[in-house]
Amino acid sequence: MTQLQMAIQGIASPEILAVAESENIDPQKLMKLIANGEVVIPHNRNRNAVPTGIGSQTSTKVNANIGTSDIMCNLELEIAKIRICEEYGAHSVMDLSTGGDLDSIRKIMLEESRLILGTVPIYAVASKLDRQGKSILDFSPEMLFTEIERQAEQGVDFMTVHAGITKWSLQAHDMRDRLLGIVSRGGSLLKRWMLSTKEENPLYQYYDKLLDICEHHDVTLSLGDGFRPGAIHDATDATQISELIVLGELVKRATARGVQVMVEGPGHVPYQDIAANVQLEKSLCHKAPFYVLGPLPTDFAGAYDHITGAIGGALAAASGADFLCYVTPAEHLCLPDLEDVKQGIIASRIAAHIADIAKGLPNATAVDDKIAKARREMDWETVFRYSVDPKLARQRKSETSSDLSDRCSMCGNLCAIKTDKENTLD
Amino acid sequence: MTQLQMAIQGIASPEILAVAESENIDPQKLMKLIANGEVVIPHNRNRNAVPTGIGSQTSTKVNANIGTSDIMCNLELEIAKIRICEEYGAHSVMDLSTGGDLDSIRKIMLEESRLILGTVPIYAVASKLDRQGKSILDFSPEMLFTEIERQAEQGVDFMTVHAGITKWSLQAHDMRDRLLGIVSRGGSLLKRWMLSTKEENPLYQYYDKLLDICEHHDVTLSLGDGFRPGAIHDATDATQISELIVLGELVKRATARGVQVMVEGPGHVPYQDIAANVQLEKSLCHKAPFYVLGPLPTDFAGAYDHITGAIGGALAAASGADFLCYVTPAEHLCLPDLEDVKQGIIASRIAAHIADIAKGLPNATAVDDKIAKARREMDWETVFRYSVDPKLARQRKSETSSDLSDRCSMCGNLCAIKTDKENTLD
Fold it and tell me: Who has the most CB within 10 Å: A30, A56, A78, A206?
């Protein structure tokens, strides 16, 4: 049985109990949320990932995209990225590799870490075709389902499928007003194949087959947004919302079959549209967990898109988004290196934590209160311990003062906290 | 006459005309906003700073705090920081020096740049007392007014004064519930002196004298928030709001005298309180421009507080705040170095730009649209030109591809934009 099926039947699986404990939430309440499709625990039964709850009333989670490309392919680097993900507190990793021996890269990633792991199976299909000198027009639905099945057997915990690009949503959409058209790799490939063959999207046409595979292995579906905007100009248009309407239908069909499902969201979205995008997903997709890519509320911050993504992600999560896909400083420019991965994770964790405070989660507020008290007492060790990056905070503090004294180089003798303490003594 | 007095009389000063042009706003409309106290142009008549409008319907501005401390005092470093401020697009610099020969440091800073320059005069007084081995209890009101007058003559464009800490607001306040008490240096010093001497805050008691000086030189007052929260736990409490009520009274008295005035705001504020803090300032302070310090919606991100500040600043500015004081990665840990200054400016500029799009300013949206079109055309030069940091964006792009070709190391051959262009050709 899947975690969803167990929750519906009132069976508290070890994973449900573990999530209830880490989230500080009553197991019965959590089971109800899972049964309603509001929370998922991506947990392929062929693997043993850390039980991780994603969805309403749980803390906001952070995903890190890693993986090779045909231009940069270095397995050791990718394994080092996984270590960074673990060290800096990502909750999930997506292997988006498109270069090298994809099956064995994925196998190693699944073994190297217990973080939940996601993939986009169509990348492997497209990448194999590309290496054979073929194009996406040589694609067949069987290739994709064979790939999905193999990855499910390998233990992949969640998979992105662009099943919302259908004849109907293609018909509804009008790209003429967009500045950037389609920026989803999976989306652009499927559209290319569909326009050329006049066939329906196989992920939609054979969705029941997909659900069979996912139910069998308890793979969580992540319904991708192939029509997501790639520029703030293109956001929240008919194209994007038509696809979201289809995703809502697919959410219903998945949960009815006992398959866990979440929905992916944009992308490039102006700040003033972010809350509405979250509300729309929750409404059209029956409260399924919302997994946002950023979002990025400006296009002008190349080399700093981790900050742009944190600004958008904090607002999205505070508005109800559940899962933040990080954006690294390398986004739009090159494949991320180790430092990019670290910066991306930390920026998204800050956004997630800020939103968790706004969501009223007591675990989150408690951290800030501990730090505030420690600052008053100039107890630097406690400040560091609860900080998002203890190592760097300690290093910066020590740059200009050799000990952990009560003096720092910013205020020197004119320290407000010290002056104010004298007031308390009066 | 001050810019405010000219605006009231319908005189379009060269500064008003320059701001109208750079903000793409009708000069008559701008004059009305200035006359209403909703926009200020800090512009000491003894200096010739770049005319910079701050307030409603103008673009969000960014301030960079620089300056020495008694532990780190290096004038060349501070001048290099000014260069960074100019290169990366800060609109304003505050010299918060407390170490070295403060008068000559300030003089050099005023000469080195045409960015508007602000100070906190009480720092100079406290710093001189400290160097003489005296405490703030040896302070006299005359010292402070002499300092303010000297700085006004030197050409300082705006000054932070903590005039809202009064016998009344001290009485109203109850610090017992706070975790961090007072974290404003000026605020803690004035409170210390007031509790000890039982005297009224001289900045409040002799406020008319302060207005005389400001009117004479057209110094813009920046009403400091000495009671600002230093931890999200302490935000939006009676202490903070009592002071804001006094600041509202002082705004009215300043504008009635023809003195330009803005109001400073927190500080550490949980995300869900930020919009209310902006609305409260606009309401209690008669729509005076709001100059926020961050705000920081979490206390746990030491060494990354530029990101925390950008998350808070974007929401504050989108909610109506007009002027963002940057926060650097060094905040709470040490005095910022050159890289910190750069990171702080860029993070705040991203927040300001995101908010300007949300505010509906056409100048802001136009930048993003140019970049989106250039991305579609793989016109990297145009992407770089309009990016927040063209140099770094170019450097990152070139890391893994030697030319500005249409291939980057992230997607390699599987580029969605290229695939989608093939669709357009069908």
Answer: A30
